[in-house]
Amino acid sequence: MDLEEFNSTDPESARAALRPCIDVDRWIDALEAGRPYASLDELQAVAATAALPFTADEVEQALSHHPRIGERADGETAEAKLSRGEQAAVDPESDVTRRINEGNLAYEERFGHVFLIRAAGRSPEEILAELQRRLENTAEQEDRETADQLRQIALLRLRGALEAPAAASAAHS
């Protein structure tokens, strides 16, 4: 779906297109209600504002759709496919991934939820370094970082969801 199609589709289809970006009803409703958008940048700005702040309940709901970093999401849902693509650089058999898995367990024990990071564009070593750094956070610091990572993921997914079809059709022109 491109931006023009997103702007003109029915509300239910627009919300369905947004849900794989992040499963937070308030955010989805705000973006759907703001249509039409003059540009993808305008939509991104509204999306960023709507994500400030995500509530604790919204973060918890969104985290329920995210696998542990280093683990491949199962299934054929849009969220699972996006997650697999975002974690493509993480080799499940490497020593770094083993260390990430150990860190995941320590993180979950400390904070009570999965470690979430924008994996797209990061190497496994960078992910491990961030995991180790964030294990030193207070619960309040980590809540803020987790919400920020969710925002980053949602915005990247949103741009990808509405840019990819236009880029693919331009490449075939």
SSE arrangement:
Layout: H1 3-8, H2 11-18, H3 25-33, H4 40-50, H5 56-63, H6 78-86, H7 95-111, H8 124-134, H9 139-171
Helix pairs in contact: 2-3, 3-4, 4-9, 5-9, 7-8
Give a verbal description of the structure:
The chain contains nine helices and no strands. Helix 2 packs across helix 3 and helix 7 (95-111) runs parallel beside helix 8. The protein is mainly alpha-helical and 173 residues long.
Order of helices and strands: HHHHHHHHH
> Any guess at the CATH architecture?
Orthogonal Bundle
Distance between the termini: 18 Å
What percentage of the residues does DSSP assign to strands (E)? under 5%
Q: How large, in whole angstroms, is the Cα Rg?
A: 17 Å
CATH superfamily: Oxo-4-hydroxy-4-carboxy-5-ureidoimidazoline decarboxylase
- Average pLDDT for all residues: 86
Low-confidence stretches: 166-173
Domain count: the total is 1
Tell me which oligomeric state these chains represent. Answer: single chain
- Biggest beta-sheet profile: none
- CATH T-level fold name: UraD-like
CATH class placement: Mainly Alpha
Supply the helix-strand structural class: mainly alpha
Counted by DSSP, the helix tally is 9
| Portion in helices | 55-70%
- What is the general shape? elongated
Annotation, overall tally of beta strands: 0
